[in-house]
Structures are given as structure tokens and as C-alpha cells.
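RECORD TYPE: inverse folding
INPUT: C-alpha cells
STRUCTURE:
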């Protein structure tokens, strides 16, 4: 019999985990940001809140968002007019819709990632799903496994209510799984729909107005594995996952929060969020690079920052004295899709690889950062492989 130490060593991969493929998907319904305030106040029958409508118009104008995709379209809302009133008991109906829509959207994104990866879905060994739109067990992970035809032994994990840091957390767990289980191929899927937190405006909840104005729907998927297969199907690592950390900003539990209530998901965002991130991000980066034992010039790196809001990107750019264009991938994703919570950061990686393929970003090393309730900062140091320059 081998020793436990030998068994453990044999289980570990040789190389670092890497993102091997990426896929994204969005609901068909598109909402132009310039039309949103009129639409929102009309469908929620709230035209009498003229001051709030003007505020939302100003938020939309300054949001850096051109359009968003939304699962909850006018037709679906017409079938559920009570969704506009957060005091009515709509949680059951919302969960019913979300428990079909979230895995379906995730499956669209995952199918694209699997097609790019080039191996059969049945070769996936682990599945991690992140969403804030849960409320049922078995959860979206099991439904997604079934939609994709994953093997019955696939090892599933659901991350619930991790909010905008869900994508970062899921990728960190995928890295650990891939590096500690030789041959593992981890499918990460993040799927978010705002239907859970859609309701009309309230004078005393300005964060509702903000949330309605910046959040969008989308799903992203990534396949993560170590030691790429080079015989038969050739796997092409995109981003190698060098190192990862998680930091919580002390005493900020109340600044980003979500809670299920009878009328849906109550989403709270304090006005302090951009400033809190601004005063903690650089320390977090310095600590991460210290732990790695290397120093870095911020402009020599590529950046995949979660675009939580336009002003957050402005703060990061200013704080780190980043050159123009360093946050172009985050800004483009924000512009095209809004803040899709946990799904967003993989969209940013997808956009980054397109920019790298066009030669618009040439840095070899970079950082991915996502922020969520906690306030939690998920940071990962990435290495771009030559495959990204060759496309
Ligand atoms: C909303 C903005 C685009 C507005 O742009 P500017 O700040 O440049 O413009 P501005 O100061 O003139 O603000 C325009 C109007 O928005 C209002 N406003 C700004 N921030 C607000 C907030 N947090 N809650 C309510 N209202 C807010 C202002 O009071 C102002 O109203 P008036 O015009 O009436 O004076 C920006 O502030 C932004 O990007 N904020 C970041 C949003 C955020 O916190 N994102 C994190 C999401 S959480 C996340 O990503 C993680 C997770 O969900 O888990």
C-alpha cells in the first residue's frame, strides 16, 4: 500500500491551473440605457415620482453603460405586474422563473466554452456555479449539469449570493481544484438575472434607483484545468492562474448586502462603496504581490477589474495612475452589458483576450479583481500565454 503522502503527491497536478476556454451569453432583450428611465417609470407605473425619474436619467447618463440585456421583459412583467411592488409576496414566483432561466442562460455560456475547449462535456470533472438568483435545492448547478449532459460523478458546488465577487471566488476555487486533482477539468458558470431584485422606486431607497440603473443580466463560463492535454485534442491555456488572495474590508458588512424577502431580493448598496474600494485596492494589490515575493509596475500589467460602476473604474485608474486604455476591457464590458454581478469578470477576461489577439494589450502579466458583499475583494494574478497573441 502506498503512503498517504505518496497518494496525495500523485493526486496533485504538475503545472498551474489555467483558463482553457471562455463562453458568455445574455438574454435576447436589449435595453438602451438612454431609454431606461422612461421605460422603468412607465412599466412600474411610477411616473408620479418625477424627481426620482430625473435622478435615474442622470445616473444612466453618467453610468458608462450604453445598453444592457434583461430577462424580465415587458411581456413577462405584464404577466407579473405585482413584481413592481416590493411589499407584495412575489418571492415564490420569482424563484420559479429564476430556477429555470438561470441554468438555461448558464448552459448557453457553458456550451460556447465547451465548444472552444474541444473536449466532450462528459470530460468535465467539477462544476462550480455562482448566482444570486437562487432559492431552491437542488440548485442551478444540478440543472446545469443535466442540461449539459455532465457525468453523474461530476463534483458540484453552488456559490449563492456572493454577488459581484462570485466570479472571482469561483475562479479561485477552480484553481485549487485543478491544481489539487490531477486531470481535473473544472467548469465555472456564473449566471445572474436582475428579475429577483426588480421593483419600483421608493423615495427612501435611492440605492434601488441606482441598482435598477446599472445591473444587467448575463452568464459567463470558463473551463479551468492544469497540465493541458497536447495529444489528440489540444487544449490551449489562455490565462495561467499564478496566485490568488481574498481580502475583506473591515467594518463594511452593511455596505453591500442582499437579503431574500417576501417581495424578492432586497439589494442594498451604500454610497460609500466607491470610496471604500478606492482606499483599499492598492493595499490589497501590494499585499498580494508581497506574498508572491515580486514587485510590479501597475502599468506593466494587464487589468481585469470588475466594472461595478463607472466611478469605481475611474477611481482605480486614478489611484494606480494607469495609462489610458489599461481598463478598456472593463469599460467595454460595462458599456455593452452593465454590471452583471458575478458573471462580469469572466466577460472582462473574454474581452481582454480579444484585445490581446488584436495587439491592443501586450502585457504578459496581469491582475483580475472582483468586489462583492463583505466587502470582499477577490484578487488573482494571471499570466497571459502565447496562445492569446496567436489568434
Ligand atoms: C452612479 C454613478 C454612475 C454616477 O456617476 P457620478 O458619481 O460620476 O455622478 P454624480 O455624482 O453626478 O451622481 C449622479 C447621481 O447619482 C447619485 N448616486 C451616486 N451614487 C449613488 C448611490 N450609491 N446611491 C444612490 N444614488 C447615487 C448621485 O447622488 C447623483 O444624484 P443627483 O444627480 O440627484 O445629485 C457612479 O456614482 C457610480 O458608478 N457609482 C458606483 C455604483 C456602485 O456602488 N457600484 C457597486 C455595485 S456593487 C458591486 O459591483 C458588487 C456587488 O453587487 O456585489
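DESIGNED SEQUENCE:
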Amino acid at each position: 500500500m502506498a503512503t498517504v503522502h505518496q497518494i496525495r503527491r500523485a493526486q496533485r497536478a504538475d503545472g498551474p491551473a489555467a483558463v482553457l476556454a471562455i463562453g458568455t451569453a445574455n438574454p435576447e432583450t436589449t435595453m438602451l440605457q438612454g431609454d431606461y428611465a422612461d421605460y422603468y417609470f412607465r412599466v412600474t407605473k411610477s411616473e408620479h415620482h418625477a424627481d426620482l425619474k430625473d435622478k435615474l436619467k442622470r445616473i444612466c447618463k453618467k453610468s458608462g453603460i450604453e445598453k444592457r440585456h434583461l430577462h424580465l421583459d415587458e411581456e413577462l412583467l405584464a404577466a407579473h405586474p405585482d413584481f413592481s411592488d416590493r411589499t407584495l409576496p412575489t418571492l415564490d414566483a420569482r424563484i420559479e422563473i429564476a430556477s429555470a432561466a438561470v441554468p438555461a442562460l448558464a448552459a448557453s455560456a457553458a456550451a460556447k466554452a465547451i465548444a472552444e475547449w474541444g473536449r466532450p462535456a462528459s470530460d468535465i470533472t467539477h462544476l462550480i456555479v455562482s448566482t444570486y438568483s437562487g432559492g431552491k435545492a437542488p440548485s442551478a448547478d444540478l440543472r446545469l449539469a443535466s442540461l449539459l449532459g455532465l457525468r453523474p460523478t461530476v463534483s458540484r458546488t453552488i456559490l449563492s449570493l456572493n454577488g459581484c465577487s462570485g466570479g472571482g471566488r469561483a475562479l479561485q476555487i477552480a484553481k485549487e481544484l485543478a491544481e489539487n486533482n490531477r486531470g481535473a477539468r473544472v467548469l465555472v458558470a456564473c449566471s445572474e438575472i436582475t428579475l429577483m431584485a426588480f421593483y419600483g422606486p421608493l423615495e427612501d431607497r435611492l440605492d434601488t434607483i441606482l441598482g435598477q440603473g446599472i445591473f444587467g443580466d448575463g452568464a459567463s463560463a470558463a473551463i479551468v484545468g492544469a497540465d493541458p492535454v497536447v495529444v489528440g485534442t489540444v487544449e490551449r491555456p489562455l490565462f495561467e492562474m499564478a496566485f490568488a488572495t481574498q481580502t475583506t474590508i473591515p467594518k463594511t458588512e452593511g455596505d453591500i448586502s442582499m437579503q431574500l424577502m417576501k417581495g424578492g431580493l432586497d439589494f442594498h448598496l451604500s454610497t460609500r462603496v466607491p470610496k471604500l474600494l478606492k482606499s483599499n485596492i492598492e493595499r490589497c494589490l501590494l499585499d498580494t504581490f508581497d506574498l508572491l515575493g515580486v514587485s510590479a509596475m501597475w502599468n506593466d500589467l494587464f487589468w481585469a477589474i470588475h466594472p461595478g460602476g463607472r466611478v469605481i473604474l475611474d477611481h482605480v485608474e486614478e489611484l494606480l495612475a494607469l495609462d489610458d486604455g489599461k481598463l478598456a476591457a472593463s469599460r467595454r464590458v460595462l458599456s455593452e452589458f452593465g454590471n452583471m454581478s458575478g458573471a462580469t469578470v469572466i466577460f472582462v477576461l473574454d474581452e481582454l483576450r480579444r484585445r490581446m489577439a488584436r495587439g491592443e494589450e501586450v502585457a504578459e502579466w496581469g491582475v483580475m479583481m472582483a468586489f462583492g458583499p463583505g466587502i470582499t475583494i477577490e484578487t488573482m494574478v494571471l499570466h497571459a500565454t502565447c496562445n492569446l497573441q496567436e489568434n
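NOTES: DSSP finds 14 helices and 13 strands in the chain.
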